Structure formats: structure tokens, C-alpha cells
Amino acid sequence: MKQATGVVTKALGNLLSVEFEGAIRQGEVGAVLLGDLSLMAEVIEIAGNQAKMQVFEDTKEVVYGAKVSFTGHLLEAELGPGLLGTVFDGLQNPLHKLAARSGLFLERGVYEPSLDREKRWLFTPSKEVQAPLVPGDLLGSVQEGNITHEIMLPFSCYGEWTLEFLAPQGEYQIEDAIAKIVDREGNLHEVTMLQRWPVKSPLQIGKKRSPEEVLNTGLRIIDTQFPILKGGTFCAPGPFGAGKTVLQQHLAKYSSVDIVVIVACGERAGEVVEVLETFPELVDQKTNRPLMERTVIICNTSSMPVAAREASVYMGTSIAEYYRQMGLDVLLLADSTSRWAQAMREMSGRLEEIPGQEAFPAYLASRIAAFYERSGVISSRGKTGSLTMGTTVSPSGGNFEEPVTQATLSVVGGFHALSRARSDARRYPAIDPLLSWTKYLPKVGKVMSTLLPNWTESVLACAKMVREGDEIGKRMEVVGEEGVSTQDMITYLKSELYESAYLQQNAFDPEDTYTPLERQLEMFRLLQHLFCQEFRFNTHDEARTHFLDLQHHLKNMNYLVYRSKEYQEAYRLIEEKIGLSAGVLV
Ligand code: ADP
Ligand code: MG
């Protein structure tokens, strides 16, 4: 079929009106031709023979009458071996290759195939290929770093097929035919290791299940107090400088998942550079292999307009879903979704739509909800994979009442609220235990109770203690220390100790930055004994001295290598101080 063509009749920022001939569809990708340059654009509205298109590039020099050629394709992700370890832009151009071509400053209109066409992969056919074959069925596998990358029947091969040919074990490029399949009518179709999927359509083949497994992050405040399940969703809103990006980078490094997809959607350029500089050097704790081997990074470059932010969010999600389909645990991190929402607002304004709250489009909440819907646990072919989504929101001035935070809050399962007061006081991670919450506590509690009896009750008791401690602290600011009872003073000191020695963690100390679950449990157990104790102090000062001394020892223990001699000694000493005979706790 001949592809449609068009001409530009109007331009407003990166929104173009195009008069077209032929058939096009919503979401179709077209190229705006500027001499040798062609700029990628997407159809967002069609009326009669007029289309509105958003261009993913700077529209400088686009003139009245400029030609547009449509592709017939939607915005798609290329899926196949070679995704891991790569840095892409929002349109899935591999940035290192672009840079090699255009040098330090990326030019617009320069596109590169997402995946390497030359590289050879050792393909091992699967033994259990059976008829009928349906999309997502296993054909074979290749080894991608530490990951066994499953080659599945392309998701867009709808219907049932029989296998005509499956390539023997050997080295193939991703565009080589590794299988031939026939449908009921006898049509033959060649299958390669490379497949495409429209990024805005959820990729979910199989049965969706409710999340059950705990996601460990090595951050005590998350794992213990506000835990997350694999396949769940969580969000960290916070003002500028509160530690959102540091938190996301921590999660990317230490979360207990197989694959991490990082979407840096247009936060400060320096942060993206930092990710690109630090990530290639990091080593995965579990496997001792470079962390990049399990990571895909998608970031927007400064040369691209905001429309690319939207593309990058969806691009990241499709890649994450692809790996989930192989039965892997995937974590998608997006920093920050506010930038994406701003892109929606800008485009909605240009389309002259009726604005909603704070000029965001009325469909903001439904777009946000549809995005988080793509998370979850999926079972197919006897395998279970999960996609967990963790995002940040950057509300201006840290006001959580604004539409993006509110729309996000109504759909996510966990909320880690970062507060300016905490980050100013250098209490990191600045997750505010008074504002944060998680819906996963009952399920996580079931798992954790097998490791530590009464785990859920203890966590809830700690939350209550922190709330009371905060109230007492505020009261003391007004009436002075002498105005509160010794019992209140003790509650206050306990909650201070819990916050500073347990909930806070120094991201820049090699030991304290990551606390494995066993270590968290060991310490949490110790603290529960302390919190249950009855004290009789004669003066406030006596109480303070006791708790500050304990707090000091606990904090120091966090910096010691786990299970080292020093750690064991510090642990014993604290046991003694709490009045437990050595060995009772471990
Ligand atoms: P945001 O992304 O919210 O604007 P960042 O994540 O860039 O904020 O954090 C700003 C600064 O705060 C960091 O450069 C770092 O100095 C400090 N910071 C944030 N989190 C931590 C942490 N967990 N430990 C120590 N310092 C932190
Ligand atoms: Mg940031």
C-alpha cells in the first residue's frame, strides 16, 4: 500500500497542522522533510484531511508547505537482544552511536537503529516448540550478559501458527530468520530475533496476578517501614533538592530485581550526565558483574523538545514489559513524571483543549492511571515475571496538593514523601515517616512474620511511636523539656533513636548505604527489645544520657562491615547495654 503524504499548513511550537492525502491513523509516525533532514513526528489528532502532529525535534526552519511522509507505523520499540547496557534517547536512538556520528553536540534528525544489526548472538533453539504457536511462545534463547534472553514468537503475530523451520544452534544476527511459521491459511512468515511493539499499547500476554513477593531495596525505611511488593507501584514526591534522584539511583543499584530500566525524563542535564558517568563503573552486589549489564537507560537530550519526554516514559515501559514477559523481575524508575505531565500540559495548550486544574489537561489523571496499570505480575508459559514501577514527582514548592501528585497518589500502592525539612536537616533519606504510607504492609507482613514473629505489629508500633515522638517534640518546643512527663520524654528519645539510628541512612558510606535484609532484621529485633523495656529514670537528663549513648553505638554499628569481628563486638556491647545477656538475640 502506498503510504500517505502531506504538507505543513501551520506550525505552533512543535505542533504542526498537516494537510494529507491517503489514509493515516492516530499515533502514526511521519517524517517532516527538510532538505536532507527528516524530523520524526507523531499524529495526535485527525479531522477530515487535516492532521495535527507533534514533532519530536526542534522545529526550526520548518516552513509552510514542507513535505511530510507517513510511515504507516505507530511509535514502536525495537525489542530483542542488545537492549541491556545501552543508553537510549526517548525515541530509542542509541546515544553512544549518535554521539559517534555527530560528535559532542547531537544533531537533530539523526536516527540510528536501536539495536546492533551486525552483532552475532549464539541462538539455542528451544526443545519444546509445539503447535499451535501463539504470540509470546518460546522459540529459543540467547545469553545476554547474565540474563537468559528468551526469543519469543513476536507479540504482533496474532493468531495460531505451526512451526515450519527452527534454526539450529548457531550464531545469528538479529535480523536473520531463526524460524519460519505458517498460519491456518498456509501463509508463511519469517521470524527474526528482532521484533517491534507500539510503545503506547500495554504488552501483557498471560495471566495477571496480584503481587506477593517482597522487593528488597537495602533502605531500612523502605524495607521495614514502607515496604513495596514486586509488581507494585510507588512514588516519591519531593521538592527540588530533597533527594529524589539520589533515592532513585540507590534503587537502581540495590533493588532485588533482574533488570532495571531507568527513564530520566528531563530533569536537570547534570543529573543525566552523572548517571551516565557513574553507572558504567558500578558493580552488581549479587553477581559481581557490571551493573550496566542489567540496566537500560533512557534519557532525553537537551536538543529534543518536551514531546520526547512522553515518548521516553512509554519507551521505557515497553522495554520493561518485554523483559517481564520472559519471567524476569523488572524495575522501571522514572524521574520525574512531573516533566512528562508538563509536556502534556504544553501540548494540550497548543491544541486549545479545555484546561483542567492548573492548566493540566482533563485527561491527566487517566493517562497517569493507565501508565501505572502497566505494572504488575504476569504468568505465562509457567513462568512469572513482575514489573515494579517507582517514580518521582517534583511538585513546585513541594506542595503535594497539585494535580500530578494527587493523580499519582490515587493509583500507586506506596508513597515515600520526601520533605524539605528533613533534607535541610540532613536527615537522609528524607522520606517523612509521618506523611508516607504503603498498601503492601499486610502482604509483606505475612512474609516477614515467618522471619521475625509479630513483624507487622512491631512496624505499626514503631510508626505510632514516631508519631507520638513528633507530637511530644513539638510540645517541648512550646513548653520546654520540663513541661513533659518523664514517660513522654522517654517516648520522644526512643523515637529519635529509631529515626536517627535506623530510619536514616547515609547514601555515601559504603556500608551504611545498603543494608541487606538479614542485617535489618537483626537490628530491628534488637530495637524491639529496647522499645519494650520499662525504664525508671530520676531525671530527664538521665534518660537522655542513656538513649543518646545507645543511639551513638547503634549508629556506629551501621558503619561496620556486616558480620565482621567489629560488628559482632558492637552488637554484643549494645545487647549488654540493653540488659540482654549475650547471645539471647542472635
Ligand atoms: P532532587 O532530585 O530531589 O532535586 P537530589 O537527589 O539531586 O535532589 O539530592 C540533592 C542533594 O542532596 C544531593 O546532591 C546530595 O548531596 C544530598 N542527598 C540526597 N539524598 C542523600 C542521601 N541519601 N544521603 C546523603 N546525601 C543525600
Ligand atoms: Mg532530581
Bound molecules: adenosine-5'-diphosphate, magnesium ion
Taken from the alpha-carbon principal axes, the silhouette is globular
Low-confidence stretches: 582-586
Percent of sequence in beta strands: 15-25%
Structural class: alpha+beta
* Helix proportion: 25-40%
Average pLDDT figure: 91
Tally of helical segments: 15
Radius of gyration: 27 Å
DSSP E strands, number = 27
Alpha-carbon distance between the two ends: 72 Å
Largest sheet data? 10 strands, mixed
Task: Walk me through this protein's architecture.
The protein is an alpha+beta fold and 586 residues long. It contains 15 helices and 27 strands. Strands 8, 17, 20, 21, 22, 23, 24, 25, 26 and 27 form a 10-stranded mixed sheet that branches. Strands 1-2-5-4-3-6 form a 6-stranded antiparallel beta barrel. It has a 4-stranded antiparallel sheet with strand order 11-10-9-13, with no helix packed on it. Strand 3 and strand 4 form a beta hairpin. Helix 5 (307-324) packs across helix 6 (337-350), helix 11 (455-479) packs across helix 12 and helix 12 packs parallel to helix 14 (540-558). It is globular and about 90 Å long. Magnesium ion binds next to helix 3. Magnesium ion is lined by residues 244-245, 267, 271, 335.
Walk me through the topology.
Elements: E1 5-12, E2 15-21, E3 28-34, E4 37-47, E5 50-55, E6 67-74, E7 76-79, E8 87-88, H1 95-102, E9 121-125, E10 138-144, E11 147-152, E12 162-166, E13 170-172, E14 177-182, E15 188-192, E16 195-198, E17 207-209, E18 214-215, H2 220-225, E19 228-229, E20 233-237, H3 244-254, E21 259-264, H4 269-278, E22 295-299, H5 307-324, E23 329-335, H6 337-350, H7 364-373, E24 376-380, E25 383-393, H8 403-409, E26 414-415, H9 420-424, E27 437-438, H10 441-449, H11 455-479, H12 486-503, H13 517-532, H14 540-558, H15 565-578
Parallel strand pairs: 8-22, 20-25, 20-26, 21-22, 21-23, 23-25
Antiparallel strand pairs: 1-2, 1-6, 2-5, 3-4, 3-6, 4-5, 7-16, 9-10, 9-13, 10-11, 12-14, 14-15, 17-24, 18-19, 24-25, 26-27
Helix pairs in contact: 5-6, 7-8, 11-12, 12-14, 14-15
Magnesium ion binds at residues 244-245, 267, 271, 335.
